[in-house]
Write a structure and sequence with these properties.
Protein name: Squalene monooxygenase
EC number: 1.14.14.17
Number of domains: 3
Pfam family, one: FAD_binding_3
CATH topology of the largest domain: FAD/NAD(P)-binding domain
CATH class of the largest domain: Alpha Beta
GO molecular function, one term: squalene monooxygenase activity
Keywords: Monooxygenase, Oxidoreductase
Number of strands: 18
Structural class: alpha/beta
Radius of gyration: 21 Å
Low-confidence stretches: none
CATH architecture of the largest domain: 3-Layer(bba) Sandwich
Distance between the termini: 31 Å
Shape: globular
Length: about 400
């Protein structure tokens, strides 16, 4: 391996693999540095890929495990206390999501990168320093190595060491705690929709299949939830009724067995995109709440934009505005669905009613969440809806402009 390459990507998660492919598409010689040998089995990392993101990764060689994945057809949102059926936002033009266990997704993506000409992957390697002049220091097998590149891409996630070294500690705003579990067993349904439901303000649940015999459930719990021993009864009271009937007993059993895995969740503003020759992509920039599964779409948009701009400085200067709309819409919908803020209960019902009554609005919101190219005819209706949600109109307009890096345009 040469000590000088065109690009170094730090992190081989879905966004890091996307960055490596996007740069290789433009002729770059790329080294990917990853500290783990295989994908982690995290209950809160990406498992559901909205169609545009899934199509990009499939085009780059993502291989779906036979019998170990699900193709999704849309998103379902439900305020369970309003007495209506869920609002379904179907994917348009027959597009389909991909859902599969996170570790298997990461392993399949890394395999696609390993097989890519012009890309070298270094696993079990830890980056100890990355500087704006394009220098990276890493350790592997007890040996320290120094590499230089015209472009260094930090795709090392929410706890990005590269971001901290460049811009200091920028804490996330914790808005809730997530408790995740996989329900498995005979007789469980296969869900083709990514389902989000809320009944009591501050309590929400996401439900989606990750394989024909496995369903991921993520409980969104206020930070003020009680601690043991009162926690079990609290979770049972607030979340079991939110589940489809067929999943209530499996979730109750999982709660009784203590099978939940916990994490603090929230958001970090997507402000810092890079400095000098060093660019940040995906959650290394910042992140939104994961309950609507839009984070990977944002990260892949970042990767495509960086490769198209060709330099960290141009990307950091031009991309921030064009990438704002998806994050704004996702966070606003999360706030409405969780209804944690004063006055949002009535606004949430109004917003859901608008979605229920307007096919054009459902199409537009679906486009923004999934990174698909929006139709210009949708701009007035989605702008009005976004005003209701408190999103600046210019952020929405940016998603319809020529500089927006929407996945369906690539």
């Amino acid at each position: 391996m040469s000590d000088s390459v065109d690009a170094i990507v730090v992190g081989a998660g879905p966004v890091g693999c996307a960055a490596a492919h996007a740069l290789a598409d433009r002729g770059a010689r790329v080294v990917v540095v990853e500290r783990m040998e295989r994908g982690p089995a995290s209950p809160f990392a990406v498992e559901w890929l909205h169609p545009s993101a899934a199509d990009v990764l499939l085009r780059w060689g993502l291989v779906l495990p036979e019998g170990g994945h699900v193709r999704g057809t849309g998103v379902s949102m439900h305020l369970a206390d309003e007495g209506h059926e869920p609002v379904v936002v179907p994917y348009r033009r027959g597009m389909r999501a991909v859902s599969m266990p996170h570790a298997e997704l990461v392993d399949a993506l890394r395999d696609s990168v390993v097989e890519r000409p012009g890309v070298e992957v270094l696993t079990c390697a830890r980056v100890t320093a990355a500087t704006p002049d394009g220098t990276v220091r890493l350790t592997r097998d007890g040996q320290e190595t120094r590499l230089r590149a015209d472009l260094v891409v930090a795709a090392d996630g929410r706890s990005s060491g590269v971001r901290r070294a460049l811009f200091g500690h920028t804490p996330q705003t914790v808005v809730s705690h997530s408790a995740g579990v996989v329900l498995e067993g005979p007789g469980l349904p296969v869900y083709e929709f990514f389902q989000v439901a809320s009944e009591v303000p501050g309590h929400g649940v996401a439900i989606y299949s990750i394989a024909p015999d496995a369903i991921r459930v993520v409980l969104d719990v206020p930070p003020t939830h009680p601690r043991p021993p009162a926690l079990h009864a609290y979770l049972h009271r607030h979340f079991v009724p939110l589940m489809p009937e067929v999943l209530r007993r499996p979730l109750a059993d999982a709660l009784a067995a203590g099978r939940l895995t916990w994490s603090a969740t929230g958001f970090r503003p997507r402000v810092h995109y890079g400095q000098g020759r060093l660019a940040l992509v995906g959650d290394a920039v910042g992140h939104i709440h994961p309950i609507l599964a839009a984070g990977t779409t944002l990260g892949i948009q970042d990767a495509l934009s960086l490769a198209a701009h060709g330099s960290a400085e141009a990307y950091a200067r031009e991309h921030a505005g064009a990438g704002a709309a998806t994050g704004r819409v996702a966070m606003a919908l999360y706030r409405l669905l969780s209804r944690q803020e004063p006055g949002t209960a009535q606004t949430a019902r109004m917003a859901v009613d608008q979605l229920r009554l307007s096919p054009a609005l459902r199409d537009a919101v679906g486009d923004l969440l999934t990174g698909d190219e929006p139709g210009a005819a949708h701009l007035p209706v989605v702008t009005a809806f976004s005003t209701m949600l408190g999103i600046p109109a210019q952020d929405i307009a940016a998603a319809y402009g020529p500089d927006a890096y929407l996945l369906s345009r690539r």
